[in-house]
Design a protein that fits this description.
The chain has 16 helices and 20 strands. By secondary structure, the chain is of the alpha+beta class. The longest helix has 19 residues.
Length: about 475
């Protein structure tokens, strides 16, 4: 059904996962949506890129079965998660003989699946297993909630976790989930992630989901088609320069001219949103500008198409001081039949790695794979490519006050994985923020036009207006 001619005109600036979710939700509710993206492709920091004639990702991702809103939105725009994602039980498996462990949950009901995984785990001593059992039992008793935040490192010390368990499980999970080292990462947010993985009430919620298609095709491109089918439009290569409210409407300066809308969702990166908000809400803009960021690097290594790993992905023991940068390796050929022999290696918290020459970093990672997997041929890939997202996520530190989706400006809402949430900067956080922003805009759109200029989308920097 197309949007009615008298429908609320909404601009969604930013075509990442948050912006696409907001656009879909608004279009589904009858709004006339214009999705604006400055790049030539959608997806933001989770998008497809072309490398050596292959559609890859700007970064390898793992989703969780607990990502209910993300999976629902995928279905809404016509993407079948069962076909687009490889579902695996929660696990942390290192190459045999590399000094790691082998922890994988059977497909049993929760929490029996974790108890069985713990009993069967290889590479952990009895003291390690007892420590893990104590931690999960105590965390479950606490409801996986920590009221006084601290660092993940402090939390692990408080619960008497062993050095080996920290090295093989907790530290890699923290870095992978929060992209922030345990010495600086929020224990409160980390527990929220564990709640929906190791502590999930439904076993399926703890499953790991690996994309079989590129991140752009997984949701953003389908979302754009959905918006257009509902009577909206998608503008690529159109940068939002400024936004000004005039007579109750938002006048936007876009590449090629100006356009006017009844409401605006800012789903651009926090730094860009801060620049747009600065003339109108300086306190909010300052909060957005104060966020710190962490990079993630993904190294793609192409080998002979006959190459195949024993598992779809492995954890790796990293040690940057010894030139061991890789933390996880994925066999892309087991995810996408059109990419045989292609491996993707993830380096989270990649500040130091980003400072290395790309070819040198790829060479070190290839040598690490050859050693850990005991396959000398992995030391000599046919080609390699390192893709680094310098601002992949915000630094998820203890007590960080993240802004809400509401603002002090009438008809303007924020969307982005940096907004207030139990979760760190994940795809689920981005999607949920887009849905929350759409809800605020819908409520604003129900006000009589003469009252809209007296209203705003919520708390933000100012007290609520009296309507």
């Amino acid at each position: 059904m197309s949007a009615a001619s008298g429908a609320l005109r909404v601009a969604v600036a930013g075509g990442g996962w948050a912006g696409c979710a907001a656009a879909v939700e608004l279009a589904a509710g009858g709004a006339r949506v214009t999705l604006v993206e400055s790049a030539r492709s959608l997806g933001g920091r989770a998008r497809g890129v072309e490398v050596q004639g292959k559609m890859l990702d700007n970064g390898q991702h793992i989703l969780l079965g607990a990502y209910g809103d993300t999976l629902r939105m995928m279905r809404q725009v016509g993407v079948d998660p069962d076909a687009a994602l490889l579902r695996l039980p929660v696990q942390m498996r290192y190459p045999e003989g590399s000094g790691g462990m082998d922890f994988v949950a059977p497909r049993w009901p929760a929490p029996l699946h974790l108890a069985a995984a713990l009993l069967r785990a290889k590479g952990l001593a009895r003291a390690d297993k007892m420590a893990l059992a104590r931690f999960t039992t105590a965390a479950r008793t606490m409801g996986w909630v920590l009221y006084n935040d601290c660092t993940v490192e402090e939390l692990l010390e408080r619960f008497g976790q062993t050095a080996r368990l920290n090295r093989l499980l907790w530290h890699p999970l923290c870095i992978a989930a929060l992209n922030t080292p345990p010495q600086r990462a929020s224990a409160k947010v980390f527990l929220a992630v564990l709640r929906d993985s190791l502590g999930a009430k439904r076993r399926a919620a703890s499953d790991m989901l690996l994309p079989r298609i590129d991140m752009g095709a997984l949701f953003p491109q389908a979302a754009a088609r959905y918006v257009v089918a509902q009577g909206g439009q998608v503008l690529l290569g159109a940068k939002l320069g400024a936004a000004q409210q005039v007579d109750g409407a938002w006048r936007l300066s876009l590449s090629g001219g100006e356009a006017e809308f009844d409401a605006l969702v800012l789903a651009t990166p926090a730094s860009q949103s801060a620049a747009i908000l600065a003339p109108h809400a300086p306190d909010l803009a300052a909060r957005l500008s104060s966020l710190d960021y962490e990079p993630i690097a993904t190294c793609y290594l192409q080998y002979d198409p006959s190459l195949r790993l024993d598992l779809p992905f492995y954890a790796l023991l990293d040690d940057p001081a010894q030139g061991r940068w890789g933390q996880f390796v994925f066999d892309r050929g087991q995810l996408d039949a059109s990419q045989p022999g292609l491996l993707a290696v993830v380096v989270s918290v990649a500040q130091d790695a980003a400072g290395l020459d790309q070819d040198a970093l790829a060479g070190l990672i290839a040598a690490q794979l050859a050693q850990d997997l005991r396959r000398p041929e992995l030391g000599a890939p046919e080609w390699s490519r390192v893709i680094t997202e310098k601002r992949a996520t915000f630094s998820c530190t203890p007590g960080l006050l993240r802004p809400g989706n509401d603002t002090p400006l009438p008809g303007l809402a924020l969307a982005g994985d940096y907004t207030a949430s139990d979760y760190p900067a994940t795809l689920e956080t981005a999607v949920q923020s887009g849905l929350a922003a759409a809800t605020l805009i819908r409520a604003y759109g129900k006000l009589p036009p003469e009252k809209r200029r007296l209203s705003h989308t919520g708390g933000g920097d100012a007290p609520a207006s009296v309507i």
